[in-house]
Design brief:
The protein has helices spanning 2-9, 39-49, 60-64, and strands at residues 14-15, 23-24. The protein is mainly alpha-helical and 65 residues long. The protein has one domain. The chain is elongated, with a radius of gyration of 25 Å.
Length: 65
């Protein structure tokens, strides 16, 4: 178990001691874009159009307060 832990923290491939030759521990880097919304634009939009979705007619204010 200690060897498996050491391989994990050292980013090495883990090979389990069984007859199936299973392995685990490959590092994968995932990059995503995150967009921050403008609180000023949100406030102005709600003041102009209200809390109701113009497409689905869902009223957020009525449901969530």
């Amino acid at each position: 178990m200690q060897k498996i832990y050491n391989n994990l923290i050292n980013n090495e491939e883990i090979i389990y001691p069984d007859d199936k030759n299973l392995f685990e521990g490959t590092k994968q880097q995932i990059v995503v874009n995150a967009y921050e919304r403008s609180s000023k634009a949100r406030k102005e939009c709600i003041e102009e159009y209200g809390y109701k979705c113009t497409i689905y007619k869902f009223d957020f204010e009525k449901i969530y307060g």
